[in-house]
Amino acid sequence: MLNVQSEEIVPRRWYNVVSDLPEPLPPPRSSDRDHSSIELLNSIIPREMLRQEFTFNRYETIPEEVRVQYLQIGRPTPLIRALNLEKFLGYRGKIFYKLEGATATGSHKINTAIPQAYYAAQEGIEEIVTETGAGQWGSATALAGSINNMKTTVFMVKISYEQKPARRTVMSLYNGRVIPSPSSETEFGRNILKENPSHPGSLGIAISEAVEYTIANGLRYMLGSVMNSVLTHQSIIGQEAISQLDILGESPDTLIGCVGGGSNFGGFVFPFLQSGRPIELIASTAREVPKFSKGSYEYDAIDSAGILPMLRMYTLGSKFVPEKIYAGGLRYHGAAPSLSLLVRSGRVNTDEVPEDEVIQALKIFASTQGIIAAPESGHAIASLIRYARNRDNQGKTIVLNVSGHGYLDLKIFEGRE
């Protein structure tokens, strides 16, 4: 059996990693700029999200309405044996990939957008707000808002807004309003544009604008990554993968995924921590955004303006402006606190890949498996290829998380044939 899909594979509970971490997760604390930032968080995200953010419960029940919406957007996503890739690499083990690009919006982001929008709608909210880098999170939020009868406003990092017009079209089709960031819609954006009218933007800036806009209009803000509640929702990926591997009678030796803020990686690998097996975990990042190798493990702001609380994480600094790499989802300055703690403890290994190598990996995956993966996922594919070509790893069973498809990101290949 090469592809495992069944409605029963979709779990009825999310998994929260907090109680299984090697040490307590450092709590958020108020930012240096705004000592009421934790109280501010209380007022801009749905109440149920706030509860889930700070709970120690190992499991959270998925509301039946949310599970139905999961089924409607394409869950469970397939787990596929990559026989052609194995043959191309001459690999003497097994390679599987979990295809999150099979969802309606084409990435894992919809896994948390749906419950967040559902919780906001339960509070009678009529509009939700967020930021987006490459556009996957913005697309997921816009669709989740539309499904739950709400408007959506998305602040999109300007360089991605310019590079990815098709993503803007998708968000518009889902009834989302898309604003390039930095923008004139907020005081923070106007100040940045005053200093540099051609600023390319960053996720930290876009988050700040989205939060400021949310506060000014009494709306609800959608958390795209980094926060623990988001990684809890994403655990649906790993739980499905465990069930699918069990059906096949397989046990993974190695799990590989890419890391921007950490939500798809955490959602994929964290459920496997419960097994107690010594599975190797590899977090693949952009060499141009070297948060784990050159960043510091410290309290830092989530957003560039310092409006939201500070988290203890690996970070390049909230003012960091990354290179204009095409993988917009990996341009974030920090990583989720739970993931950062596991990297720091040595439980998770990291790998950094430059964009040229990513492009070659995407071409190999497309020509062997027929899947055009997202540039972000291309980092994980590149790390997998490195790993499989190492003779010491022959014979192992590897599972890769392909966090999204790249059919709207084909511009990355222009001029690189």
What does this entry look like structurally?
- The chain folds into two domains: 157 residues, Rossmann fold (3-Layer(aba) Sandwich), CATH 3.40.50.1100; 213 residues, Rossmann fold, CATH 3.40.50.1100.
- The radius of gyration is 20 Å and the shape is globular.
- The protein is built from 15 helices and 15 strands.
- Strands 1-4-5-15-10-11-14 form a seven-stranded mixed sheet, with helices on both faces.
- Helix 3 crosses helix 5 and helix 11 packs across helix 12.
- The chain is an alpha/beta fold and 417 residues long.
Short description:
By secondary structure, this protein is of the alpha/beta class. The chain is built from 15 helices and 15 strands. The model has no long low-confidence stretch (mean pLDDT 91).
